[in-house]
Amino acid sequence: MTTISNPQNKIVVLGGLNMDLMIETPRLAGPGETVEGTRFYTTPGGKGGNQAVATARLSRQPGAAHMVGRVGGDLFGTEMRSFLEKEGIVTDRLAEDAETASGIAAIFIDSSGENYVNAVYGANARCNQDQVDAACDALEGATVLLAQQEIPLGVTSEVMKAARKLGVTVILDPAPTRDVPEDFYDHSDILTPNQGEAESLSGIAVVDEASASLAAKIIREQGTPIVIITLGEEGAHVESEEISLYMPAYRVRVVASVAAGDAFNGGLAVGLSEGMDIVDAARLGMASGAWCVSQDGAQESMGTRNEVDSLMGQPQR
Predict the structure, then answer these.
(1) Which of helix, strand or coil describes residue 300?
(2) Out of 186, 262, 280, 296, which one is annotated catalytic?
(3) CATH at residue 31
(4) Residue 21 forms beta bridges with which residues?
(5) From CA 227, how far away is CA 263, in angstroms rounded?
C-alpha cells in the first residue's frame, strides 16, 4: 500500500476500476455471426484507474495521485490494486468489497484502432458513503479532484460539493453518458465530454470546429464554467467566459483509442495542479492523449512526463 502524506500538487481521483478484457478484431461481429479476432489480453482499466495512472506518470512528484474507489475481493481486484501501487499511486482509500466481483469491461478494437466497450461495473456500483468519507478525507491539501460517471452519481455529487467548498478544482468527465440530477454539473469547474457525450448534453451533432463551439456554449449554460470537448484526432475545443478556442491535435500513428480521454483528463489535472492556465493545461492533456493512442493497452499506454513533453515539442495538425 502506497502512503505519502501531503505531497505538493496532490490530485484525488474518485471513480471506477475495471479489468479490461481486450479483443483486437478486423471488425465487430453482426447478430448471430462469429468473426475471428487477432489478439486477446487483459489490462487494468476503468476511467478512475486510468486517470490515476495518467496523473501519476505525468506528475513531477511521487505520491501526487490518490485513488478512491472500490474493487472486488477477487484476483482482478488484487491485480488492479497492485498495478496502481507499482505506479506510486496512494491506495489506502481504495476499498475491497468481498461480497461482489470487480468491475470488468470487454473492449473490442477494430482495424482502425477504434474501440467499442461493454462494461459490467461490479464493485464500482457499490460505492457508498464510505467512499464519500474517504474522498473527503483525501481532499485535504488537494489541488484537483478528477471524477467520472462510472460509480453511483450520488457519491460523486457529494464529493464534488465537498471539493468546491475546499477550493479544490473539480474536473468531471461525463462518461459514461447517464441521466444526471438537475444540478449535478453545477458542482464541477471543468467538464470534459467527448464528441458523443457533447452531443448528448447539447443536442448538437459535434462534427467539426464550429459545431464543437456551439455545443460547448450550450453545455456551459447547464452550470459548468469551463467546457473542453475532446475531438479525437481532430483535437479539442476549449470554451469559457473568456476563451473560445479550437486546438489542433498532435500527429501520431493511432494504435488504439482506448483510454485516450482518460489520458487527456490526467494531463489536464496535472497541468492545472502545476499552475498552468487552462489552455496550457489542455495542451498537456492533448499530448498525453496523443501518446496514449499511439500505444497498446489502457493504463500501460499512459505516457511519462518526458515522453509527453517530447511530443509537445512536435507540431500539431
Answers:
(1) helix
(2) 262
(3) 3.40.1190.20
(4) 42, 106
(5) 17
Is residue 107, in this structure, part of any structural domain at all? yes
Report how far residue 132's alpha carbon sits from residue 176's, in angstroms, rounded to the nearest whole number: 20
Q: Is 113 helix (H, G, I), strand (E, B) or coil?
A: coil
What pLDDT score does 317 carry? 64
All three cell numbers of 242, joined, read 473568456
Q: What is the rounded distance in angstroms from the CA atom of residue 64 to the CA atom of residue 75?
A: 26
Query: Model pTM?
Result: 0.92
Distances (CA, A) of 192 to 6, 148, 189, 227, 309: 27, 10, 10, 6, 22
**Alpha helices by DSSP H, 228-277:** 260-273
Stretch among 3-17, 73-87, 95-109, 150-164 having the lowest mean pLDDT: 3-17
Residue among 212, 1, 189, 186 at smallest CA distance from 89:
1
pLDDT (tens digit per residue) in 206-219: 999 999 999 999 99
Average pLDDT of every residue of the chain: 93
Tell me if 20 is assigned to some domain.
Answer: yes
Distance from C-alpha of 265 to C-alpha of 284, rounded to nearest angstrom: 9
Please report whether residue 317 resides in a domain.
no
What is the average per-residue pLDDT within 133-151? 97
The pLDDT value recorded for residue 7 is: 56
Measured CA to CA, the distance from residue 309 to residue 74 in angstroms comes to 37
User: Of all residues in the chain, what percent carry a pLDDT higher than 70?
Assistant: 97
Q: What's the rounded Cα separation, in Å, for the pair 17 and 142?
A: 21
Q: Is residue 1 part of a domain?
A: no
Determine whether 189 is an active site residue.
no
State pLDDT tens for residues 51-70.
999 999 999 888 999 999 99
Query: 453545455: which residue's cell?
Result: 219
Rounded CA separation 213/80 (Å): 38
In this structure, the chain runs to a length of: 317
